[in-house]
Structures are given as structure tokens and as C-alpha cells.
Amino acid sequence: MSREQAKPHASRILAPTPETYRAAADLLQAGEVVAFPTETVYGLGADATNDRAAARIFETKGRPSFNPLIVHFEHLEAAAREVEVNPWAEALAKAFWPGPLTMVLPRRDDSRISLLCSAGLPTLAVRVPRHEIGQSLLRAAQRPLAAPSANASGKISPTSAAHVAASLGDRVPMILDGGDCEVGLESTVIDLSGSQPVILRPGGITRSQLESVLGSVEEAGAGSDIKSPGMMTSHYAPSLPIRLGATDVEANEALLAFGPDPIKGAAITENLSPNGDLAEAAANLFNLLHSLDREKLAGIAVMPVPQKGLGIAINDRLVRAAAPRD
Ligand code: TXA
Ligand code: MG
Fold it and tell me: Candidates 41, 44, 66, 70: which one to mutate for ligand 1, based on the most atoms within 8 Å of Cβ?
């Protein structure tokens, strides 16, 4: 049965108890999503090391495109297992973690985090939340949790369990109730992966707080020629040309197939989902594009993916990947 046909879950708002944490950890380890409070806003959490679980987040939020996700850790040492921590990050972590600050850092080559969390970028956004429930959930789940704000796409971020239930209630199996969020505004996102620190999103930690640690810090946005995160994701593209909606393969093309009848004759074939399951296809998308993007091939032909449900986000990504390059 495909995810889209799966029965919606009844909303379950639960107070934090040892039993609730155990049940939440079981759900997360099984690849399900759990909504939980952080000091900023409620997050929609899933196992960041599991492609299917990360895809589940996009499916649950109904996001039209694969924005990169913030990955939450218990402490700096856990984050340092997945990203390259530089002196800026070390200094900021010392000053503001746990707390409402997210740092964008280069992924480590041996990172176990799903490529879907990076939306194809070479970086990963990492954060150590300070909320007791977020911390307890991370300890119980024993794995990093990818978590965007727990609202349906296009809606404002939830700062209470009731907001989450109103926005996503029947689509999340569990909402941990921590009352109202202390910060109520999303974390500040700072990009530390380039030649200078750049604030990508203002939030719970102010620019002057950051400057007290780093010295002067730039801000992306109006009047600045710094790329916004949205722009950055659109820069994601394999080095081979991409041909969409393929019904045949040309000489020396790789094939990114979808469904039970892959086109024959390609130099190499990878299948997004032999069963035609869009959640599986979303989970596989970035991995398979990477694995087909090899030298000595003429290009990547991509079979049509249905423009419905998660297929809309998959096609959005594929269109960006196929866009002309400069
Ligand atoms: O307070 C928060 O940050 C909440 C709680 C749950 O932690 N999360 C949150 O996530 O607001 P979300 O997905 O709604 O916003 C994530 C922001 C987006 O602006 C996204 O573009 C940016 O972080 N982002 C994530 N990964 C990035 C990356 N690798 N490079 C640049 N920007 C990134
Ligand atoms: Mg959001």
C-alpha cells in the first residue's frame, strides 16, 4: 500500500512521561514522525539518518519543494560527528548552545545524515535545542532528529501543541505537549560554511549577540548580494545534463527510472521506486541522482513522475536540476 493511501493517524497530544518518551522513541526508530516542542517553535521530528523518515516530513507538511531541514542534536559532540566544526561554530556553540541558534556547516564525508536533509547541498543545518522535552526526546530516540517547524506548508510556525494539532493533527501519530514555546520565533540560521559568517534567517539569537562573539556579521536579504537559502537550493544540480519526461534513452545515457517498467537500453539504470511509491521515490531522489552523476556518460534521462502528492516536490527538484546552467 502506498503512503498516500495510508489511513490518517488520529491526533494524540500527550504529556511527557517516561512511557510517552519510550513510545515516541519507538515511533521515531520505526521511521515515523513525532511533533515536539523546542524553545523556539514546535518541530516535526524524524530520524535524520533514515531517508524514508526524512521524506515522511515533506509528505506530512505537504511541502511543495525539498527545502533543507534543520537537524537537532543532544550536544555539540554529536553534531561534530556529522559536520565540520570550525572555530566560529565552536565559539558560537559555547555561547548559545543549547539554544535558538542553527549553524550551517559543511557535511562530513562520512556523515550518516540523509542527503534529503541537505536538499542536495554540501552543507547541513545543525542545532542543539535547550527545551527539556526536545532534549529528553533526543536522548530517548538515540539519534539526531530532522525537524522543520511542525506546520503545514505555507502556514505559520506552531508555538503550542494545539497549533500543531490544528495544522497537522490527523497526519502526526504523536504530539508531545510542552505548553507554549518560550521563544516562539524560529532559531536564527547562520551560515558558517563560507569565507565569512552570514545570517540567513533572523531569529531567537540577535545579530548583536552573534557579533559579540564573532565580530561583524553579514545578513542575507534585501540590499545584499548574498544568496538566500531558497536560492542556494536552486543551485543544486548534477554535473551531467538532465533530460526530463524521457520515454526512450539516447546513446550513453543513464536512466533514472520510476515504476515497474524501466526503459531498456540505458548505460546504467537506477529506479526511484519500482513499485511507483512516491514516498520511496522522494527518499531515494538525491542519493540516486548522485550515484548516476558519473563522468563519461552523456546525461541522465529521467522517466516521468506523477505530478501529485510528493511527486510535486520531486518534480520541483528535478526541474531545478534540469535547468540550464551558466
Ligand atoms: O526554530 C527552528 O529553527 C525550528 C525548530 C523546530 O528547530 N525549525 C525550523 O525549521 O524553523 P524550518 O525547516 O521551518 O526552517 C529551516 C530554515 C529554512 O529557512 C532553511 O532554508 C534553512 O533553515 N536551512 C536549512 N538547512 C540549510 C542549509 N543546509 N543551508 C542553508 N539554509 C538551510
Ligand atoms: Mg518553517
Answer: 70
